[in-house]
Amino acid sequence: MAKEESSEITLRITLDENRIPEKLNWSAEDGGIVDEEAKAMLLSVWDSKNKESLKIDLWTKDMPLDEMKVFFHQTLVALSDTFMKATQDEKMTATMKDFCSYFAEKLELNS
User: How far apart (Å, rounded) are the C-alpha atoms in residues 101 and 25?
Assistant: First the structure.
């Protein structure tokens, strides 16, 4: 029997007295990331049993609004790329990319 391998990603969230995130740190040692600071995170997992997406969206109180807009735009672009890899649906991917361009244009992002 082959030895089972595993990899671990850890998240550490420091909260204030009102349970609002002050600091987000993450590690993925297989990727060479150890206790790196982040200002925001979006995590989605698929619950196959219940056929639903579960998610955690967190950002620190000092996450700048302009950076949050860029973060969302880059996340939407990455989701479009991931959708293409997962489905090979070129037509819907193009539609998603069109929305990403529209999103950037309306927010006046320079990306």
Answer: 30
